[in-house]
Amino acid sequence: MKDKAKRSRWWLLPLSLLALLALAELILRLVWTPQSMVEDVARLRPFYVVESQENGVTTYVTNGNPPSKVISYNPDDPRQLSALRFVMPKPAGLVRIFVMGSSPIYGGIGWSANNLSYYLMRDLQAARPDLQFEILNAAAQQMNSKTLTEIFQEIDVFAPDFILIYIGGAVPSLEAPGSHEMTDLEPVFFYVAEFVQDLRLVYLLGPTTQRKIVDFFYVLDEKAVTGLKDEVNVAANMRRMSQESLIDGYRKLVAQAAASSSKVAFYEVVTDLAGTPPLWSLHDKKLSKQDKNDYKELLDSAERLIKDGDHDQAIAKLEQALVIDDAYAKTHYLLGQALLAAGRGDEAYQAFIDAREKDASHERLFAEPIDVLREVLNKHHLTLLPTEERFRQLSETGVPGSDLFHDITHPSTKGLAVLGRIGVEWMLPLLPPGGEGLPEPLPEL
Questions:
Q1: Among 23, 197, 408, 411, which residue has the fewest nearby CB atoms (within 10 Å)?
Q2: Residue 404 has pLDDT above 90, yes or no
Q3: Looking at residues 309-322, what average pLDDT do you find?
Q4: Contact 131, 95 (CB under 8 A)
Q5: With contact defined as beta carbons under 8 Å apart, do 325 and 283 qualify?
Q6: DSSP state of 133
Q7: Check: CATH 1.25.40.10 for 289-358?
Q8: Which of 186, 182, 184 is nearest to 220 (CA)?
């Protein structure tokens, strides 16, 4: 009877384990707040409060630090080129510039003076030493279009003369799978993912493990929402949702920008083409087993030929592979590498663009959102700065790569200097007349 009683209480073990985990979670919440969690919360809204000295009007502008850092504002942070308090009304002769967007222009991860604000200030001072410039770096890591739209509603009181926006860079504008607007059809997996990612115990496992756990539930959610059962369709749906979210965000943001009294320009967002391979290459789901085997053989052969320097033969192999399946992003990327090495720069550029467009990852910014942005900006008579063409012109190979980028989205020092030059060239004709004119030449990149 005793053995039977013991067996009947087997459920006490998992209950005890759950109780211990709950207790551990409670203790951790009382004594520890992970930095990344603080940043996640802070991203829900711009971070520090800027108050005018004139009339106490309050607005919110990000400096990239979580709320706990407000009282220890660091004027020596090279990414912050303006004082915490604005002078109101704006002094005569002062040109006030807001730089808004995400980590590619904020300065990336870590302290760095090499950001867009720095290069704008450098070139503006060289071009117009008679004017006083104030640049507020109102950018932050992973800032999205919703936050930018909120900022637009509040900064007009500070009378900025110019606003420059660089909204791209993967995640800033794109929603993670599952984080779309919730409906009655939203399955439980989304809520599980939202709950799990806030657990301190999960944070203890490290960011990589945490991301994998959360993404697992998001993918389940994605399959449940769409009824799709294979990786190809799930990835394609993620990509579609990302573009739809971004396009909708662009439309709202541009409408808000058009209502501003400032002169506003958007940078055309660029990503690393030659230096970063596709993040998610996926075959056409209809390929037969034989086609997949043939494709693999052609691809393996082409990679060996590229390594051996036989680029013409590699190109031939890759073109054969693309006849079988044109959807595989890695093949377009390898073709771009081979064409570039063979001295066929224009063809290589197009191959890298094809690789970007075939990449199933939502980390890429694709042509469609940029085309929509261009269309909406034209409608509102706002400027889209020609970033992609300028990057191509100034790239060492004619295809933007590691010379202009640190990674898929973050420009290198030279890339940031190029962005600065583009912005300055737009602003100079719009500045008050006077000064010594443009120096010849402007400072080297």
A1: 23
A2: yes
A3: 97
A4: yes
A5: yes
A6: E
A7: yes
A8: 186
Q: In whole angstroms, what is the distance from residue 190 CA to residue 203 CA?
A: 18
CA 339-342-343 angle, 5° bins: 90
CA nearest 418: which of 84, 116, 16, 10? 116
268 and 388 Cβ atoms separated by less than 8 Å: yes
- Which distant-in-sequence residues (6+ apart) come within 8 Å of 226 by Cβ? 233, 234, 237
Structure tokens at 114: 């090499």
> Nearest Cα to 99, choosing from 229, 266, 218, 228?
266
pLDDT in tens, 121-171: 889 988 999 899 988 777 776 677 777 787 777 778 778 999 999 976 543
- Cβ neighbors of 90 (< 8 A, separation 6 or more) are 96, 158, 159
Whole-model pTM: value is 0.71
Place of tokens 């209809």: 286
**What is the token pair recorded at 268?**
């055309």
Whether residue 271 is predicted with pLDDT greater than 90 in this model: the reply is no
Alpha carbon distance, N-terminus to C-terminus of the chain: 85
- By CB atoms closer than 10 A (0-12, 13-18, 19+), residue 227 is exposed
| Residues in a beta bridge with 162 | 97, 263
Pairwise CA distance, residues 204 & 226, whole Å: 32
The string of DSSP codes covering 323-369 is HH-S--HHHHHHHHHHHHHTT-HHHHHHHHHHHHHH---TTS--HHH
pLDDT greater than 60 at residue 376: yes
Per residue in 60-83, pLDDT (tens digit) is 444 444 333 333 344 444 444 344
288 Cβ contact list (under 8 Å, min separation 6): none
Which one-letter amino acid corresponds to residue 266? Answer: F
User: Domain limits of the chain?
Assistant: 29-278+367-436, 289-358
Give me the mean pLDDT over the 282-294 stretch. 86
* CB within 8 Å of 213: residues ≥ 6 apart: 196, 197, 202, 205
Is pLDDT above 60 for 194?
yes
Cβ burial of 443 (10 Å; 0-12, 13-18, 19+) is middle
Are β-strands 58-61 and 48-51 bridged in parallel, bridged antiparallel, or unpaired?
antiparallel
Write out the two tokens for 42: 């802070």
Query: How many CA within 13 A on the CB side of residue 329?
Result: 20
Say what the pLDDT of residue 265 is.
97
Q: Domain 29-278+367-436: which CATH class?
A: alpha beta
Helices (H) and strands (E) in the chain, counts: 17, 7
Give me 389's structure tokens: 């063409």
